[in-house]
Design brief:
The structure is a single chain. The chain is mainly α and 236 residues long. Helix 5 crosses helix 8. The chain is globular and about 50 Å long. The N terminus and C terminus are likely disordered.
């Protein structure tokens, strides 16, 4: 009787193992919701042991915080890319870039599950659930403000506050609230878009030319790095 050998499990570096776990957690979040993002489920998805994930994340709450940070880093890095593109174009701002920013924020909280994940973590007693998301967003705003100048910083923070709150709220009850008010499902996105288009902070980011934008050594958006992600690594 022949015995089928067990396939040798690919050896991963600690960084590769952690990244694989976060990708699996992201897939579980989208497929089955935040309650499905457990150490056991992620370990089974990537063929690792429970102990292996405990080593990387410490607990299920640690895994969820790392996932929240990963989602925020992905979105914020894409926003940096959009601002870089707007600068490089050297043209007057159009609706295109603001709409992409709005869609990124709303999709992150809705389709990618960040809103449900944050709510689930808070309801589960994880009081610092939002810290990873807030830290990444705060870092992005601070770095852009350092390039644009302090006069832009306040407006940029106000725009960010409004956009994140609207995206989070829309993910949690936007569909039901829009229906009750007899408004289309995308009404909140359109309101957010109008606000962003009218924002002096975003207009300045898009209106300046690339030669001006990158002429200040030590202070350009190419230096903004969130986690290990850079523009060139992101899908179109």
């Amino acid at each position: 009787m022949s015995i089928t050998p067990i396939p040798e499990r690919k050896r991963l570096s600690p960084e590769e193992s952690r990244d694989a776990a976060l990708e699996a957690a992201r897939a579980l979040l989208i497929e089955a919701g935040p309650q499905a993002v457990t150490l056991k489920a992620v370990a089974a998805r990537i063929g690792r042991t429970h102990a292996n994930l405990l080593h990387h994340f410490g607990s299920a709450a640690g895994l969820q915080r790392a996932l929240a940070r990963s989602l925020a880093e992905t979105v914020c890095t894409r926003i940096v890319c959009l601002i870089q593109e707007a600068r490089a174009d050297g043209q007057a701002p159009t609706e295109d870039k603001p709409r992409q920013v709005v869609d990124l924020a709303f999709d992150a909280f809705d389709k990618s599950g960040a809103g449900a994940l944050a709510s689930w973590m808070i309801l589960s007693g994880n009081e610092d659930a939002l810290d990873p998301i807030l830290e990444v967003i705060h870092g992005l705003v601070d770095q852009i403000a350092a390039v644009e100048g302090e006069d832009t910083g306040t407006a940029l923070r106000e725009d960010t506050l409004a956009l994140v709150l609207m995206a989070m709220g829309d993910a949690l009850l936007g569909e039901q609230l829009a229906r009750s008010l007899d408004l289309p499902r995308g009404a909140a996105r359109e309101i957010a878009l109008r606000q962003l288009i009218g924002s002096p902070a975003f207009s300045r980011c898009g209106a300046r030319t690339s030669s001006h934008a990158f002429s200040r050594p030590g202070k350009n958006l190419h230096q903004i790095r969130l986690g290990r992600r850079r523009c060139r690594r992101l899908p179109a």
